[in-house]
Amino acid sequence: GSTFRCATGIRAQFTDEANIRLMKYSVERWEKLEEELGFDINFKQTGYLFLATSEEEVEAFKANIRLQNRFGVPTRLIGMDEAREIVPILNTEPFLAGAWNPKDGKANPFKTLFAYLFRAKELGVDAREHTEVIGFEQEGDAITAVRFRSNGKVESVRVDAVLNAANAWAPLINEMAGLSRDIIPITAYKHQLVKTEPLEPGQAEPLVCPPSWNDA
Question: Taking every annotated instance into account, which residue ranges of this chain make up the domain FAD dependent oxidoreductase (predicted)?
């Protein structure tokens, strides 16, 4: 699924209050997650560095940083000398400034997912892999069962409640339940990952984001 295809980034650098507050809380949860789950999930706060190539982008960075600082996110504007110290292999010539938050970071999605799965099963959760939800059974406005397909066989299971945690597919689950897709305003966007030759440890620890990411 999408969990295994993600770019592993965890950041509170956003441009709107809702995402900033949500992801600040998320970072705080990640800081305690290895202890909570009892697994090494390779969580590292190596930072996020956004880069600006124009004065307009620099001014936008300043506004974003003020908003992030307002909610306790320690982002700051840095020059290219400091950016080069943080990322020694960075070609700083095209850039004017950077937005830097050392508390942002990354984790291993494989280890995180399996840590959650292992702990959930320990607590008695019936976790079903390779299983597709295809619909619901309802009585009035209440969902009473979930229909699913597994190994070509369609089954259903009785439920008291349904939690929609389907990420980019959450609107589709809403639609199956007879609700509007727009209740959860999520839109999937495709990104691309490029695999390079191996780098020396420490050469590119922070996640570096070009200007095209600045409106995130």
Answer: 1-203
Which backbone phi and psi does 89 adopt, to 5 degrees?
Answer: -90, 5
Kindly list the distances between the CA atom of residue 3 and the CA atoms of 62, 150, 171, 201, in Å, as whole numbers in the listed order.
32, 20, 18, 25
The two three-digit tokens of residue 146, written as one number: 């979930």
How far apart are the C-alpha atoms of 63 and 92, rounded to whole Å? 22
What's the sign of the alpha-carbon dihedral 39, 45, 46, 48?
positive
Structure confidence by residue, pLDDT tens digits, 1-42: 677 677 788 999 999 999 999 999 999 999 999 999 999 999
Per residue in 147-175, pLDDT tens?
A: 999 999 999 999 999 999 888 889 999 99
- Angstrom CA distances, 35 to 29, 104, 109, 115, stand at 10, 19, 17, 11
